[in-house]
From TrEMBL:
Function as written in the Swiss-Prot or TrEMBL entry: Thiol-specific peroxidase that catalyzes the reduction of hydrogen peroxide and organic hydroperoxides to water and alcohols, respectively. Plays a role in cell protection against oxidative stress by detoxifying peroxides.
Protein name: Glutathione-dependent peroxiredoxin
UniProt superkingdom: Bacteria
Entry-linked InterPro entries: PRX5-like (IPR037944), Redoxin (IPR013740), Thioredoxin-like_sf (IPR036249), Thioredoxin_domain (IPR013766)
Reaction(s) this enzyme catalyzes, per UniProt: a hydroperoxide + 2 glutathione = an alcohol + glutathione disulfide + H2O
UniProt KW keywords: Antioxidant, Oxidoreductase, Peroxidase, Redox-active center
GO molecular function, one term: thioredoxin peroxidase activity
Gene Ontology BP, a term: hydrogen peroxide catabolic process
Database matches in CDD domains: PRX5_like
Domain Thioredoxin: 2-168
EC class name: oxidoreductase
Amino acid sequence: MIKVGDQLPDVTLQEYSEVEGNGCSIGPNPVKVRDAAKGKTIALFGLPGAFTPTCSAKHVPGYVEKYDDLKKAGVDEIWCVSVNDAFVMGAWARDQKTGTKVRMLGDGSADFAKATGLSLDLGGRGMGTRLNRCSMLVKDGKVTTLNVEGPGKFEVSDAGTMLAQAKG
């Protein structure tokens, strides 16, 4: 499993854009994780799935709500990663009204989940391989804090915990 001090994996996620700009075309755009993280402080949180109850009711809204505070604490970008395709992540971004506050990144083939060792087998629930609920503060591509939730928990990967760690 990825740990504090490790570099983010060299994988590509997908991000859906509804408008062209900043070199992004409409539709899914590749995001090379290591390149996108260079020189930035990122509050990254991972979830099992878009539109799932805890993820939609608590996890994403918490990061949207704490956006300004996280920025003041030195966070350049907030990333939400989930094992879903870019189209689903784009629809979820609209539903959650993330705007430009949270980058909603799809890990459609679970490459990020597997490369970090944070994959979760939810095949018994018909969901296949997913990303375990987690969060990490990343500086210049290196993990500086890591919070991994226990099964069915939402206690340490929330925006409030991340804010305290970013301030610390």
